[in-house]
Write a structure and sequence with these properties.
259 residues, seven-stranded mixed β-sheet, 16% strand, globular
């Protein structure tokens, strides 16, 4: 499992990337927080510089890998920070090593499905097969950006290239986890949680920017958990930490100051 580790200081902060992404998406956070905190960022199986067979790519395996790395690095009172799919991964890891986790940060999370896990996975697989994975992934990632840019083009190209093999298997498994495990994962987290949200997404995977005071099914779902604090970053696409790094860094810094 490829990872980077830098800085000194407590609490340690562990960053986990999203679907078809890599640890490099946290470069602004690694640079900022390594001046005051120990920081770690990893590439999940099949992503970046970490090998992984398609059948090994799942939220359960990813959460286990992150939890194992937290243990192996002997991190204590760690703050787990996830983006997009990485939100699911840090929630899974947090319930595996709860005594090592002091807080969780969720950056622009979402939920693909509720209800029956088998039906959810089947529907997601059917959608991917109907569109063809390349077209599905292109549509998925293009909608993550509010306006075109060279960086957006590079992220889309990277996603299509690196996920061609594992993507058709991982996406349905993510959807299955959402339907079958997400509620239990949230229930298990007793530490403070900061939800930094910049977009909302409909059933057609179309994204729209949030404004202060807006809500969404994802944010409404979190309202039942008193340990979750929500902060909206307006006029920003899905890659909040890349598009509004100063705001994200400040929110995380203020949140973690007590740990």
């Amino acid at each position: 499992m490829h990872f980077v580790r830098a800085g000194r200081g407590a609490p340690p902060i562990f960053f986990v990337h999203g679907f078809a992404c890599s640890h490099e998406d946290w470069r602004f956070q690694l640079d900022f927080f390594s001046k005051t905190n120990e920081v770690v960022a990893c590439d999940l199986r099949g992503h970046g510089q970490t090998p992984g067979r398609p059948q090994e790519c799942s939220i359960e395996h990813y959460g286990g890998d992150v939890a194992a790395l937290v243990n192996n690095l002997e991190l204590r009172n760690v703050v787990l920070v996830g983006h997009s799919m990485g939100c699911r991964v840090v929630l899974e890891a947090a319930r595996l090593v709860p005594k090592r986790v002091s807080a969780v940060v969720l950056v622009d999370g979402s939920r693909n499905a509720t209800g029956d896990p088998d039906a959810a996975e089947k529907a997601a697989r059917a959608t991917v097969e109907k569109m063809g994975y390349a077209a599905f992934a292109e549509t998925l990632f293009r909608q993550m950006f509010l306006k075109p840019s060279p960086e957006a083009d590079a992220i889309v190209a990277r996603a299509l290239k690196q996920s061609a093999e594992f993507g058709p298997e991982l996406w349905p498994r993510v959807t299955r986890w959402d339907a079958g495990q997400m509620d239990a994962a949230f229930d298990a987290v007793k530490v403070p949680v900061l939800a930094i949200q910049s977009t909302t997404r409909n059933a057609q995977l179309q994204r729209a920017a949030l404004k202060p005071g807006d809500t969404s099914p994802w944010l409404d779902f979190q309202k039942k958990y008193p340990n979750i604090t929500t902060e909206i970053v307006p006029d920003t696409g899905h890659f909040t930490m890349l598009e509004a790094p100063d705001r994200v860094n400040r929110l995380i810094a203020d949140f973690t100051a007590a740990f």
